[in-house]
Write a structure and sequence with these properties.
The complex is a heterodimer. Chain A is an alpha+beta fold. Among the domains of chain A are: 288 residues, no CATH class; 101 residues. In chain A, 62% of the residues lie in helices and 12% in strands. Chain A has 18 helices and ten strands. In chain A, strands 2, 3, 4, 5, 6 and 7 form a six-stranded antiparallel β-sheet that branches. In chain A, strand 9 and strand 10 form a beta hairpin. In chain A, helix 14 runs parallel beside helix 16. Chain B is α+β, with helices and mostly antiparallel strands. Chain B has a single domain, classed as Glutaredoxin. Chain B contains six helices and eight strands, in the order H-E-E-E-H-E-H-E-H-E-H-E-E-H. The radius of gyration of chain B is 20 Å and the shape is elongated. Classes of the chains: A alpha+beta, B alpha+beta. Chains A and B meet through helix 12 and helix 13 of A and helix 1 and helix 4 of B.
Chain lengths: 627, 173
C-alpha cells in the first residue's frame, strides 16, 4: 500500500523534474558559459532516480502480492513463482510503459555524462528533445495507464498472469528489447539536435555510432529472445510467424541496420547526411508506431491485451506530433552537403552501402505494408483480411539472393573508387558454392533450382566472410563476424525448412506407433503438481532409423489462475537437430494427440543471431581499428 | 519546386495515415458485414454438448424467433470476459442463444460452464472447427445474429461489449 503511494508520487515528481530540466537547460542554452550547468546533471540524475524508485515500488507490490494495486491484481497471483511475480511487473501494459520511462530517462542521463567532448548547444538540444518524449510518456502513464491505481476493498486474490507469458525467455525479453527499442529515442533526439545545429558531420557520426550500435545490439538480442519464446512456449514448432507484433520489432531493426551502415559513410566520407537523419527519425518513429499498434488494440494478435481506445488516441496524437515536429525541423534546418552529393563512383564502398540501404528500405516496405494494410482495408472497406507468411516469403526471399551477393562483395570494395581486379579467390568460392549446393540438395529436395540459387548465394557469403575472419585479422573484424553470422543465419533457416519433418497421430498409453523412419512408444503418464498448476507428463521413447533412442516427456499443464491449459513441448536440442514433441488431450481421455517434429539446425539460428550481435559488440569496442 | 512539393505531399500522406489510424481505433475489433450480404445459415448435423445426441440444424433453429450463435472455447481468454454479458443476454426471452464449443476439450468446457454459468439454450460441439468455419467465423469468440428467416444478419468478431449488447437487443426487438 505504501509502495503504491511512493510509486505514484515518484512519477509525479519525475514529471516535475522534466519541466525543471527544460527551464534550467533553456536558460543554460542562452548563456555564455561553455559548459553545461551542473544543475542539469543533478536534475537528470534525480529524475532517473525517481523513475527507478517508482519502478522498484511496482516490483515490490508484485513481490508482496499487494492486490490493493490494480495492476498487480490484474496480472498476478499469490501462487505464482517469485521469478514470474517480478517479471510480471513488465509483462503488462502499465508496467511496460513504466519500463519505457525508465529506459528513456536512463539513456538521456548516460548521454549527458558520456558526451562531454561534444558542443554544449547540441547536448542541451538533445536533452530538450528527449525531455519532450519523456514528458509525453509521463503524461501518458499518469493520465491513461497509471500502474498504481488503488483498489478498495482489497481483493484476496489476483487474476493471475497468462501462463503462456510465464517463461524465462519472455521474462527477460521485454527489458532487452526495450533497451534497443526505446534506446533509439536518443538517436532520434540527437539527430534532431544535430540538424538544428548544423552539426551532422564526421565528428557527430563517430559519436552517435556508439549509440546506434548499443540500440542495435539490444534490439537484435531482444528480437531473438522473443522468437525463442515463440518456439519453446507456443509449441507450434516455428520461431517466426510474421505476427504484427513481431513485425513491429523487426521494422526498427531494419532501419537501424541501414543507419548503422550509413553512419560509416558519414564517419569516413561525411556524406549521406540526409539518409542518416531520416533513418534516425524513422527508427524511433517506427518504435513508437509499434507501441501504438500493440498497445491500442487496433491489431488482432496473440500479443495484444489492452484494448482501450483512449490510450490509442493518446499515443496516436503524440506519435504524429513527434513525426511532424521532426519533419518540420528536417525541412527547415537540414542542408545537404552540395559538394559531394550523390556523385559516388559506381564501384565503391559508398555505392554498395547505398544499395544496402535500398534493400533495407524494400524489406521495410514489405513488412510495413503487410502489417498496416489490414488496418487500412478495414477502415476503407469494412473488410477483414489478414496477411500471412506466404506474402512475406514471396516478396522477400527472391530479393535475398542479390542481397546476399552484395553483402559478400560490398565490403571488398574500397572507399571513393575501386577497380575490378582479378579476384580469383572470389570466383573459386562462387564455383565451389554452386557445386557444393547442387550435390547437397540433389537428393533431398524437389525444388532444386530455387534452393540451389538461394543456398549457393548464402554459401558464397559464408565462404567469403569465413576467409575474411581468418585472413584479415583485426581489420574490419566486426563486419566479417556480423556478415558471417548472417550467412549462418540464412543457412540454418533454409536447411531447417527443407529438412524438417513432422508426424501427427493419436496414441494411448502403452501403444507403439511405427512410421517410415522409426517408432514412437508411449510408455506411461504421470500426474504432478507445480506451485500454480497441475500437470500431466507423458513419457515417450522414440527410436529413429539409426536405432538411436530419445526419451521425450512433454507436459500438459492446467493452470489454476486463470484456468488455462498449456502444452509444454519437450525439446531435445543437439548441435545438429532439435527433436520436438508436444501432446494434447483428445476427447475421451484415453487417447492423446501428439506432434513429433525433427527440426535440423535450430540452435544455429540462435547462435547466428548472437554472432551478428557480437559483430556489433566488437565494433563498439574496436572502433579505432576499422577501415 | 521539387523541394517544396516533397514536404507538402508528405504532410498530406501523413494526415491521411492519421485519419485512417484514428478511424481504425474507433472501429475496435468487432466488425459487421454489410446487411445486403445476408447469408443463409449452413445446414449441418452436430453433437449436443450435454446429451451427445446428434442434432439436425433444422431442428436447432426451428422456432420462429431470433437466434444468437456464440462461438466460444474454454481456452479462449476473451470468452471469459464476455461471458457475464452473455449471461445477461440469456435473460432475454425473445431470443435463443446457441453456443458453439470451438475446438475444445469437453471436460474443460464443462468446467468453464459450471464456473461461470450457462447462458446457452443449447450448446453444440465443434470439435475440429468446421462448423464455425461454415458460419463464416475467423476465430473465437464470435457472435452471429440469425433472424426469423434463418439468415445471418449481423456478425461480431471478438468479445461482445456493453455497446454490442445493446445493438443485439435493438436488432432482436
Amino acid at each position: 500500500m505504501l509502495a503504491n503511494q511512493i510509486g505514484y508520487y515518484s512519477l509525479v515528481l519525475g514529471l516535475l523534474f522534466s519541466f525543471l530540466l527544460c527551464t534550467v537547460s533553456i536558460k543554460n542554452f542562452n548563456d555564455n558559459n561553455k559548459k553545461i550547468n551542473l544543475n542539469v546533471f543533478t536534475l537528470s540524475f534525480l529524475q532517473l532516480t525517481f523513475v527507478v524508485i517508482s519502478f522498484l515500488s511496482l516490483i515490490l507490490s508484485f513481490v508482496n502480492s499487494d492486490f490493493s494495486n490494480e495492476t498487480v491484481f490484474n496480472n498476478s497471483h499469490t501462487t505464482k513463482p517469485l521469478f514470474y511475480k517480478i517479471s510480471g511487473t513488465w509483462g503488462n501494459h502499465e508496467g511496460s510503459l513504466l519500463l519505457w520511462l525508465l529506459v528513456l530517462t536512463l539513456f538521456i542521463f548516460l548521454f549527458l555524462i558520456k558526451s562531454r567532448e561534444q558542443p554544449k548547444k547540441y547536448r542541451i538540444l538533445t536533452l530538450l528533445f528527449q525531455q519532450l518524449i519523456i514528458i509525453g510518456f509521463f503524461l501518458f502513464v499518469l493520465m491513461t495507464s497509471n500502474p498504481f491505481n488503488y483498489l478498495f476493498p482489497v481483493p484476496n486474490e489476483g487474476l493471475g498472469l497468462n501462463p503462456i507469458l510465464q517463461d524465462p525467455a519472455l521474462a527477460i525479453h521485454p527489458p532487452i528489447l526495450y533497451l534497443g527499442y526505446v534506446g533509439s529515442s536518443i538517436i532520434f533526439s540527437a539527430s534532431l539536435a544535430a540538424v538544428t545545429q548544423n552539426y551532422v558531420s564526421k565528428k557527430w557520426g563517430q559519436h552517435i555510432k556508439k549509440w546506434v550500435l548499443i540500440s542495435w545490439i539490444f534490439l537484435s538480442i531482444g528480437i531473438m529472445l522473443g522468437s525463442i519464446w515463440a518456439y519453446y512456449e507456443l509449441g507450434w514448432g516455428g520461431f517466426w510467424f510474421w505476427d504484427p507484433v513481431e513485425n513491429v520489432s523487426l521494422m526498427p531493426w531494419l532501419t537501424l541496420t541501414a543507419l548503422l551502415h550509413c553512419i560509416m559513410v558519414l564517419e569516413k566520407r561525411s556524406n549521406l547526411t540526409s539518409w542518416v537523419v531520416i533513418l534516425s527519425i524513422t527508427t524511433f518513429t517506427l518504435s513508437m508506431c509499434g507501441t501504438f499498434l500493440v498497445r491500442s488494440g487496433i491489431l488482432n494478435s496473440v500479443h495484444t491485451f489492452a484494448n482501450d481506445p483512449a490510450r490509442g488516441i493518446f499515443i496516436l496524437i503524440f506519435l504524429f506530433l513527434l513525426i511532424f515536429i521532426s519533419l518540420v525541423i528536417f525541412f527547415l534546418f537540414h542542408k545537404e552537403n552540395k559538394k559531394n552529393l550523390n556523385n559516388f563512383f559506381w564501384l565503391s564502398k559508398e555505392t554498395s552501402i547505398l544499395i544496402n540501404n535500398w534493400f533495407m528500405m524494400y524489406f521495410l516496405s514489405v513488412v510495413l505494408i503487410g502489417t498496416v494494410y489490414p488496418i487500412f482495408i478495414d477502415v476503407m472497406s469494412a473488410e477483414k483480411i489478414s496477411v500471412g507468411p506466404p506474402f512475406y516469403h514471396k516478396l522477400i526471399i527472391p530479393f535475398l539472393v542479390p542481397f546476399l551477393l552484395f553483402m559478400a562483395l560490398g565490403p571488398k570494395l574500397k572507399w571513393i573508387k575501386s577497380k575490378i581486379e582479378k579476384k580469383n579467390s572470389l570466383i573459386i568460392f562462387f564455383i565451389i558454392s554452386v557445386v557444393l549446393t547442387f550435390f547437397i540438395l540433389k537428393n533431398i529436395t524437389t525444388d532444386l533450382l530455387f534452393y540451389t540459387i538461394l543456398i549457393s548465394a548464402t554459401l558464397f557469403l559464408f565462404f567469403v566472410t569465413l576467409k575474411d575472419l581468418f585472413i584479415q585479422r583485426f581489420e574490419n573484424i566486426s563486419q566479417a563476424i556480423a556478415h558471417f553470422g548472417f550467412s549462418l543465419f540464412i543457412l540454418a533457416i533454409l536447411f531447417n525448412s527443407i529438412l524438417s519433418s513432422e508426424i501427427i497421430t493419436n496414441i494411448k498409453v502403452g501403444e507403439k506407433y511405427s512410421y517410415s523412419k522409426g517408432e514412437i512408444f508411449f510408455k506411461k503418464i504421470k500426474e504432478t503438481k507445480g506451485s500454480n498448476f497441475n500437470s500431466i507428463i507423458g513419457y515417450f521413447k522414440i527410436t529413429d532409423e539409426n536405432n538411436k533412442v530419445v526419451e521425450l516427456n512433454p507436459e500438459i499443464r492446467v493452470y489454476n489462475q486463470p484456468i488455462i491449459i498449456t502444452s509444454e513441448a519437450d525439446i531435445k536440442t543437439t548441435l545438429l537437430e532439435d527433436k520436438f514433441l508436444v501432446m494434447n488431450f483428445v476427447k475421451g481421455d484415453e487417447y492423446f494427440n501428439i506432434r513429433y517434429q525433427v527440426k535440423p539446425f535450430m540452435i544455429w539460428i540462435w547462435i547466428s543471431v548472437l554472432l551478428i550481435s557480437l559483430g556489433g559488440l566488437v565494433s563498439l569496442f574496436k572502433n579505432k581499428n576499422e577501415k | 519546386m521539387k523541394n517544396k512539393l516533397t514536404p507538402i505531399i508528405l504532410f498530406i500522406f501523413l494526415t491521411f495515415c492519421f485519419v485512417v489510424f484514428y478511424k481504425g481505433l474507433n472501429n475496435s475489433n468487432t466488425y459487421t458485414p454489410n446487411t445486403n450480404h445476408e447469408k443463409n445459415i449452413p445446414t449441418f448435423k452436430a453433437e449436443d454438448f450435454n446429451s451427445n445426441v446428434y442434432l439436425d440444424s433444422k431442428n436447432i433453429f426451428g422456432e420462429d424467433i431470433y437466434y444468437i450463435v456464440n462461438i466460444w472455447a474454454s481456452w479462449c481468454i476473451p470468452c471469459r470476459k464476455e461471458h457475464p454479458l452473455l449471461m445477461e443476454l440469456s435473460k432475454n426471452q425473445s431470443i435463443k442463444l446457441i453456443g458453439l464449443n470451438y475446438r475444445d476439450n469437453l471436460k474443460n468446457a464443462k468446467m468453464f460452464i459450471d464456473e461461470l454459468g450457462n447462458p446457452y439454450a443449447q450448446t453444440l460441439i465443434d470439435k475440429n472447427g468446421t462448423l464455425s468455419v461454415g458460419f463464416g467465423a475467423y476465430g473465437v469468440p464470435e457472435t452471429f445474429i440469425i433472424n426469423k428467416n434463418k439468415k445471418i444478419v449481423k456478425k461480431f468478431i471478438g468479445p461482445i461489449s456493453k455497446k454490442t449488447l445493446e445493438e443485439i437487443k435493438t436488432i432482436t426487438k
